[in-house]
């Protein structure tokens, strides 16, 4: 079986689906001419996946070694509202000095662990676990040069090293105030073979306990305003995190990963090192601290009261359910509708239309040189709490971008509400750029920002 991925265009080939068909025909016709058999097409797990990149009159063909993105370790089934990719989590831990801390027997604590990516990656690093060990499919499996017996021996060696490494793990703890996220973290740890060595607890950050020696590493990926909340609303959270560090973790190392370094000032700690990393298209900073009194700075923002934190946690907990169902529905629809769209040579179609009552959205895909997503929210009735509706909308947008593996700037949101006369056709924004999308042999310019509807 084969599959063809195609990107780019030229004067004669303007549609990526048409280009993929031409490459596929050329390859399978050669097979039929050489051996009398025509390979079948398998878009999910082919024996051979060919990537084609066209730039004017030059074509580059590549064989897919991996099969799917290597950041997918195989233990995650669902994600929270702002998921951190596994490979980025591993990079954060390596930069933060976790391997040397683990060698000395130091503890790792993540007080805002979400669905557990940082603690699990920390356990795999300290436990000498190969990151692709849970995967049962690689692109090279169908290559003629692949030697299954040799690969089997390498896997057995990796399994033995993992078993030996896990037995020597230091204490690794993840906490989060969201009970659903904690349950997902526990499920992920079980799939990763770590459920007996990595501990997850439900607790607010203000309740983070003081841990006994030896000192270790506190690593945390708090929200930073790009996805889950505005910067002005997050200063108190960062101040509270700083208070917890100074109260319970003196003598420890700390690493805070944020897309808004100015929020780091609210921690009340002076960073010794500052590393630039990217979370998708978002430029972020890994702020690294020694939690020692000599590095304390005056508190700039008063942390919120415990009562307020508790009430906010209850709202967040109640609103966060359903993202996994939404992600599963989007994947299912894309798999089914994607086949129909490819057969019909259609590049723009509706992926989701309020399929789940909790997420009253219409999600449209527009394929050009890149994928754009146009999301329309059906306005919630007045009986629905507006803060809950906003939180659920933010969850849905992050889930959509994560499932489709696109940066947030390629997702456009509109809110549909009852209108009269011609008001629905009036501009809602000025200066939106036109993006080229394709339908069969046609190239169309679509403006996602200026009007409620795109007109396509």
Give keywords.
single chain; 456 residues; alpha/beta; Rossmann fold; Transcription Regulator spoIIAA; 7-stranded mixed β-sheet; 4-stranded mixed β-sheet
Give a verbal description of the structure.
It is a single chain. This protein is 33% helix and 22% strand. By secondary structure, the protein is α/β, with parallel strands linked by helices. It folds into three domains: 2-63, no CATH class; 86-133 and 142-319, Vaccinia Virus protein VP39 (Rossmann fold); 323-447, 2-Layer Sandwich (Transcription Regulator spoIIAA). α8 crosses α10 and α9 (323-343) crosses α10 (386-404). The radius of gyration is 25 Å and the shape is globular. The protein starts with a strand and ends in a 9-residue tail after the last strand. Mean pLDDT is 84; it is low at 300-320 and 417-431.
* Radius of gyration, taken over Cα atoms and rounded to an integer in Å: 25 Å
Biggest β-sheet: strands ordered side by side in the sheet? 6-5-4-7-8-10-9
* Highest CATH level, the class of the largest domain: Alpha Beta
Tally of DSSP β-strands: 16
SS-based structural class?
alpha/beta
Q: H/E series, N to C?
A: EHEEHHEHHEHEEHEEEHHEEEHEEE
CATH architecture grouping of the largest domain? 3-Layer(aba) Sandwich
Kindly state the percentage of residues in helix. 25-40%
GO cellular component, one term: cytoplasm
Domain THUMP: 1-65
Keywords: Methyltransferase, Transferase
Protein name: THUMP domain-containing protein
């Amino acid at each position: 079986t084969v599959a063809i991925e195609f990107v780019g265009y030229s004067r004669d080939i303007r549609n990526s689906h048409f280009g993929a068909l031409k490459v596929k025909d050329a390859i399978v016709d050669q097979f039929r001419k050489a051996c009398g058999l025509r390979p079948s097409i398998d878009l999910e797990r082919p024996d051979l996946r060919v990537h084609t990149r066209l730039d004017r009159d030059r074509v580059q063909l590549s064989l897919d070694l991996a099969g799917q993105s290597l950041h997918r370790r195989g233990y995650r089934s669902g994600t929270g509202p702002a998921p951190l990719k596994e490979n980025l989590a591993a990079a954060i831990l390596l930069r933060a000095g976790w391997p040397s801390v683990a060698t000395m027997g130091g503890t790792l604590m993540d007080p805002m662990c979400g669905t557990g990516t940082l603690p699990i990656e920390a356990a795999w690093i300290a436990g000498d676990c190969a990151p692709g060990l849970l995967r049962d499919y690689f692109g090279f499996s169908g290559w003629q040069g692949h030697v299954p017996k040799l690969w089997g021996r390498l896997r057995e060696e990796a399994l033995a090293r993992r078993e030996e490494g896990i037995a020597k793990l230091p204490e690794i703890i993840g906490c989060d105030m969201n009970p659903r996220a904690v349950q997902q973290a526990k499920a992920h740890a079980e799939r990763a073979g770590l459920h007996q060595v990595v501990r997850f607890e439900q607790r607010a950050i203000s309740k983070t306990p003081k841990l006994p020696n030896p000192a270790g590493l506190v690593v945390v990926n708090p929200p930073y305003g790009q996805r889950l909340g505005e910067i002005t609303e997050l200063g108190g959270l960062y101040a509270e995190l700083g208070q917890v560090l100074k109260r319970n973790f003196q003598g420890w190392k700390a690493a805070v990963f944020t897309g808004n370094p100015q929020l780091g000032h609210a921690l009340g700690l002076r960073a010794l090192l500052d590393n630039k990393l990217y979370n998708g298209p978002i430029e972020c900073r890994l702020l690294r601290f020694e939690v020692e009194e000599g590095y304390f700075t005056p508190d700039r923002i008063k942390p919120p009261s415990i009562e307020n934190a508790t009430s906010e946690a209850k709202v967040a907990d109640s609103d966060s359910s359903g993202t996994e169902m939404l992600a599963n529905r989007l994947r299912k629809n894309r798999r089914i509708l994607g086949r129909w769209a490819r057969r019909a040579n259609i590049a723009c179609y509706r992926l989701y239309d309020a399929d789940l009552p909790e997420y009253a959205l219409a999600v449209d895909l527009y394929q050009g040189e890149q994928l754009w997503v146009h999301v329309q929210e059906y306005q919630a009735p007045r009986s629905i709490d507006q803060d809950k509706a906003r939180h659920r909308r933010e969850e849905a947008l992050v889930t959509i971008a994560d499932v489709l593996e696109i940066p947030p700037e390629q997702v456009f949101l509109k809110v549909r509400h009852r209108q009269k006369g011609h008001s629905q056709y009036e501009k809602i924004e000025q200066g939106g750029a036109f993006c080229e999308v394709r339908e069969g042999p046609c190239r169309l310019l679509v403006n996602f920002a200026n009007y409620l509807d795109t007109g396509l």
